Amino acid sequence: MARSLPPVAWFRAFEAAARHLSFTAAAEEIGMTQSAVSQQIKALETRFGAELFARKPRGLALTDAGRKLMPQVGAALEMLQAATLALDGPPEAELLTVASSVSVASWVIAPHLPDFHRRHPEVRIRFASAIWPEDFRSAMADVEIRFGSQRQVGQSALPLEPSELVALKSPQLDAPLEALPLIESVGTSVGWDAFGAAHGLGSLRPRLYVDSYGMALHLAAGGSGVALVSALLGRDAEASGQLVRAHAGSIAPREGYYIAVREGVPAARAFAAWLEERLMAG
């Protein structure tokens, strides 16, 4: 049986880090945190059973394996980009395209979408799943909801609130926070260790790791543990009673969700204004 290929995201992180010889510079380019880039490259090295970079005090250097892999990965990513551009057509004039992660679409937008349709029955919406900068460029969306820092998403993007990180669990879990399995989303700069330090809880070690806040919320809703997630994503689940606070405290993040709107598209402005109103309504 053929082995499955590693995720494209791992190769993207490797290619950017190999060009810059810096995890930090690679993270800035592809819109991730430095720790997320480092983790993905480590996963790729584990999969291949070989180190791709020599970690030095003042930077990185490609190993023989890394130098061998670099041109092949670069060429493959260029082919994927070319194929995407060849198939992508211009957006339909009467169709509003909203690009966001599946987490945002599922936990923030979907609970209120019937209300938007009641107010704007003339607007048709196409949702495009997007995480990486290349995803957003390919989507050619009228509305973009991105995750990252203000520097990463661009100065024209506006922050969505609430942005603090909160601890959520199923109401069926009746135990103190410290006694429950902790779920952490990798690729973010603030996690359970910072939450524990901020609230005098000592060292909090996650038991489950996921790659998105949305997946963390799904696991928490199913009773698998406590998710440390953006309050923006958890607000509706908390309001409905699907999830409850496992701890009264919260902690400020270093990344958040931002919205950007294409100029000259009235439906995009209407969607952004509607979303902001829904979020402010609590």
From TrEMBL:
Q: Where is the HTH lysR-type domain?
A: 6-63
> Which Gene3D superfamilies does the entry link to?
Periplasmic binding protein-like II, Winged helix-like DNA-binding domain superfamily/Winged helix DNA-binding domain
Please provide an example of a Pfam family that matches this protein in its UniProt record. HTH_1
Query: What keywords tag this UniProt record?
Result: DNA-binding, Transcription, Transcription regulation
Q: Which residues form a coiled coil?
A: none
**UniProt xrefs under InterPro entries:** LysR-type_TF_proteobact-type, LysR_HTH_N, LysR_subst-bd, WH-like_DNA-bd_sf, WH_DNA-bd_sf
Which family is annotated? Belongs to the LysR transcriptional regulatory family.
Protein name (record): LysR family transcriptional regulator
Origin organism is: Salipiger mangrovisoli
